[in-house]
Write a structure and sequence with these properties.
The chain has about 725 residues and is α+β, with helices and mostly antiparallel strands. It folds into five domains: about 5-50 and about 85-155, Rossmann fold, CATH 3.40.50.140; about 170-220 and about 500-600, Orthogonal Bundle (Topoisomerase I, domain 2); about 225-285 and about 415-475, Topoisomerase I, domain 3, CATH 2.70.20; about 290-410, Topoisomerase I, domain 4 (Orthogonal Bundle), CATH 1.10.290; about 620-725, no CATH class.
């Protein structure tokens, strides 16, 4: 009986097919291959993610000739149609569905995957073969043993999961299409002035932008208040100890008191110890990683974007290195076999000795989180890979894997212990306090040092008094809350129930792409002048839509669909009714917006142009060689000149690059001589293509050193497969 298996991506299709038997490849196009397993008469057809999407029907394609409100009220205003690249995939689905008696949906095992398999692909299959039997293959990894086991135990299709994804797509389509048109039409005068074509509005993205606006407004309006602190540097056996006055901070009204105390004690040389207490504190190992926790960990530790973190985990999954990275579970099922994975780490260069000790001490039970969602286990490394493994596609994959593997091993580690020594001191009758926190037992920190905070040296204080090196009166100012980072935005979105664990990185990227937010120093986000203006105007007339309450309520309804508590149609109807009321409120009140344009358009136009100029340049992952803090940007001027510049304009560091040729920054490849990113240069001359490599830092020093700056001329290293390696 011929069987058709549908996967979401080519790598997954290849992995599934190879796990089930010897494979022959049927090429349909350059990028579309069907994997045939003759011994079992199975055909595995990959998709390319979604092959269908919602668009406006012909009647509503014209923004000028249709009413945006009808996109909400008329069910025929939107329709699900094929994406531009979908045609060969649809033809292949139809072709092989006619040959097969059974269809197995093996798209990604989450809401989005169910929606792609059951609502994008399956309708074409059933239309071509109405008698075909349908089951689902639910995979938590692409390991061969799991594929074989799960294939023998297929499940009924998870219709409610697919319906939840479909409801989301419909809701976001009519909300996005109607509100984008209505707001764009309203803001048309200012859009024409600043050369913007439209205003992108979305249920989740606009609510997130509103929250970023509130934070930035708070920072902007923050008025610093002066305050004073009194600190003392003490000494004990060559260790420095910092003590603080117990009345810190001294607010403005108590400035005179702070200065009087300082005058009283500034020349004192002895601090008398009034109390010396010690407290041992236990630090438990971390809990397993679900998607949200993994994104927070990776963005914080590696200082990468949420999008990069999610994409890298997905690539590791498709390469059969980690388990499925989209999961709500941070608690392993009691039947999960950890030993089979832990034993693989015994010979590992970096993790081996730690893992061997786990077995010696029989530490086979991990910590436990709060949720076992039942769909997938927490994110788990499936294989033990050395950093030089060819299975890694780039340097970022190595770094992400290293953190995920170490974090997993830390789940089985011992508790860490810290000793907190608390001192109460008197300096000429003025009371000071000091706390010395030292690590006494490294425990799980041994394998996961990135989880460890900064500790002080461990030493005993058994004396009654300590020498005072110096006493300081410090004048400071209160500071506002910091701008959001990828990490804090992810936490905010989870707290406010904005988007899903999988879509949150994409939402952040959309705001950047639409020039509504941009990155500043230390990977922090700031709202653009355009984003600020947009939200400040929308607040006047559309606050209920901007607040997270509305989208939070929608997310709850979508969860009800997934759990079969509500039907897809009833939820779509409910949201349409709610949003129509919000839409009408905007339309009825939008006159309040139009009077503000003339007073802001010049400043806004200038700010938009500056922001566009500053933020459109690709960046290296290498730090500026002068400030050693900020990345370098590949700047191209309006006169077609290009060069590398420090992303901090005040640094004024520049490096030359070749004037011609297409430059690719190899962000996963660094020069072994100086540590800077290697650049790949592609030049075309008539029908001939030439590729060469340079390190910009070495290139800039080519007049100081005995080299012409080309990697091919480097005496110690060479480029092999886009990697800098030692010459033989």
């Amino acid at each position: 009986m011929p069987i058709l298996i549908i996967s979401e991506k080519n790598k997954a299709a290849k992995g599934i097919a190879e796990a089930l038997g010897p494979v022959t490849i049927i090429s349909k196009t350059k990028f579309l291959h069907v994997y045939h397993i003759p011994s079992k008469n199975i055909y595995v057809v990959p998709l390319r993610g979604h092959i269908l999407e919602y668009r406006n029907t012909a009647q509503y394609k014209s923004w000028a000739k249709s009413d945006p409100r009808e996109i909400i009220t008329n069910p025929k205003s939107i329709d699900k149609v094929a994406i531009s690249y979908a045609s060969p995939y649809i033809k292949t689905l139809i072709e092989f569905s006619k040959l097969c008696d059974e269809c197995v949906i093996a798209t990604d095992a989450d809401i989005e995957g169910c929606n792609i398999g059951l609502f994008d692909a399956l309708p074409f299959i059933i239309k071509a073969n109405r008698s075909i039997k349908v089951n689902q293959l639910w995979l938590s990894s692409l390991e061969k043993k799991e594929i074989v086991s799960k294939y023998r135990n297929l499940i009924p299709p998870k219709w409610s999961w697919g319906e939840s994804g479909e409801a989301r797509a419909i809701i976001d389509a009519f909300i996005g299409f109607s509100s984008t048109r209505e707001v764009t039409n309203t803001f048309k005068p200012i859009l024409n002035e600043i050369n913007n074509k439209f205003v992108s509005i979305g249920r989740v993205q606009t609510s997130l932008l509103y929250l970023i606006y509130l934070r930035d407004l708070e920072i902007e309006q923050f008025i610093p208040e002066p305050y004073w602190t009194i600190t003392a540097n003490l000494e004990h056996k060559n260790y420095n100890i910092k003590a603080v006055h117990t009345k810190n901070p001294f607010v403005k009204e108590k400035e005179s008191e702070a200065k009087a105390i300082f005058q009283k004690i500034k020349d004192e040389k002895i601090a008398i110890i009034l109390n010396n207490t010690k407290e041992s504190v236990v630090i438990n190992p971390p809990t397993p990683l679900n998607t949200s926790k993994a994104l927070v960990l990776l963005t914080k530790t590696l200082r990468i974007s949420a999008r990069a973190a999610m994409n890298t985990m997905n690539s590791l999954y498709l390469n059969q290195i980690i388990s499925y990275p989209r999961t709500d579970s941070d608690k392993y099922n009691s039947t999960f076999d950890h030993i089979q994975y832990l034993k693989n780490f015994k010979p590992h260069i970096n993790y081996g000795s730690y893992t061997v000790n786990l077995f010696k001490e029989n530490r086979m039970n991990p910590t436990t989180g709060k949720v076992d969602a039942g769909d997938h286990p927490p994110i788990t490394p499936l294989v033990s890979l050395e950093q030089k493994s060819s299975k890694f596609e780039n340097d970022l994959e190595k770094k992400v894997y290293d953190i995920l593997a170490r974090h997993y091993l830390a789940l089985f580690g011992k508790q860490a212990k810290e000793l907190r020594t608390k001192l109460k001191l008197s300096i000429k009758d003025e009371v000071f306090a000091s706390q010395i926190v030292a690590l006494t037992q490294s425990g799980f920190y041994e394998i996961a040092p990135f989880l460890k905070k900064v500790y002080q040296p461990l030493f005993e204080i058994q004396v009654k008094e300590l020498p005072v090196n110096k006493i300081f009166l410090n004048e400071k100012e209160t500071q506002p809350l910091p701008h959001y980072t990828d990490t804090t935005l992810l936490k905010l979105m989870e707290k406010e129930h904005l988007g899903t664990k999988s879509t949150r990185p994409t939402i952040i990227k959309i705001l950047v792409d639409r020039k509504l937010i941009y990155r500043i120093a230390k990977n922090r986000f700031k709202i653009t002048e355009w984003g600020k203006f947009l939200i400040s105007e929308l607040i006047k007339v559309w606050l209920p839509f901007l607040k997270p309450d509305f989208t939070r309520f929608v997310e709850k309804l979508l969860e009800d669909v997934k759990e079969n508590r509500k039907t897809m149609d009833s939820v779509v109807t409910t949201v349409k009714k709610l949003f129509l009321d919000l839409f009408d409120k905007f339309r009825n009140n939008k006159k309040a917006i139009t009077f503000q344009f003339d007073s802001v358009k010049d400043n806004l136009k200038t700010a938009m142009q500056q922001n566009s100029t500053q933020k459109s340049f690709p960046q290296t992952t290498s730090k500026c060689p002068t400030c050693n803090t900020n990345p370098m940007s590949l700047v191209t001027t309006s006169q077609k000149k290009r060069f590398l510049a420090c992303s901090d304009r005040s640094c004024k560091t520049y490096l030359p690059v070749p004037k011609t040729g297409r430059i690719t920054i190899l962000k996963s490849t660094t020069c072994l001589k100086c540590g800077f990113n290697v650049f790949k240069i592609l030049k075309r001359n008539k029908n001939k293509t030439t590729v060469y490599y340079i390190c910009p830092k070495c290139w800039s020093n080519r007049y100081k050193e005995e080299t012409n700056g080309f990697c091919s001329s480097c005496s110690g290293y060479q480029i092999s497969k886009d990697q800098c390696v030692k010459r033989n």
